[in-house]
């Protein structure tokens, strides 16, 4: 079991998707770091995953909720929960992104 997991992790590390936004604009997009963060999480490195991309766990939970909702057809009252969760998660991603850009900007000034 552990050997198979190691092979999957190594395969994922060598097959990360490139970010078209970063390629075209030269700066990270709001989702940059998600893939590396998921790999760190799968490896059991919770703190490293959180440091690489803080919205990873809330995003994965939101995706899981969406799958459960689609599979079991939750009632219509769940629409408010989905919309509210989407707004909160989007806001969290943007706040983390702006903090990241702010830190990078100040590092480039001080260098």
List keywords for this structure.
mainly alpha, 111 residues
Q: Major β-sheet, in short? A: none
Number of helices: 6
Termini Cα gap: 46 Å
Alpha-beta classification: mainly alpha
The Rg value, from CA coordinates, equals 17 Å
Instruction: Give helix % range.
Output: over 70%
The portion of residues forming beta strands comes to under 5%
Principal-axes geometry comes out as globular
Which regions contain 5 or more consecutive residues with pLDDT less than 50? none
What would the average pLDDT be, to the nearest integer? 87
The ordered string of helix (H) and strand (E) elements is HHHHHH
How many beta strands in the DSSP annotation?
Answer: 0
Give the total of domains.
1
SSE blueprint and pairings:
Layout: H1 2-14, H2 20-25, H3 34-42, H4 46-52, H5 56-72, H6 78-110
Helix pairs in contact: 3-4, 5-6
């Amino acid at each position: 079991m552990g050997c198979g997991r190691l092979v999957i992790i190594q395969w994922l590390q060598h097959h990360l998707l490139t970010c078209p936004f970063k390629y075209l604009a030269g700066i990270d997009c709001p989702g940059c770091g998600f893939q590396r963060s998921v790999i760190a999480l799968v490896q059991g490195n919770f703190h490293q995953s959180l440091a690489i991309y803080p919205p990873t766990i809330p995003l994965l939970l939101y995706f899981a909720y969406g799958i459960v909702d689609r599979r079991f057809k939750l009632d219509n009252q769940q629409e408010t929960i989905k919309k509210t969760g989407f707004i909160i998660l989007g806001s969290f991603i943007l706040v983390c992104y702006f903090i990241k850009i702010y830190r990078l900007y100040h590092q480039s000034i001080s260098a």
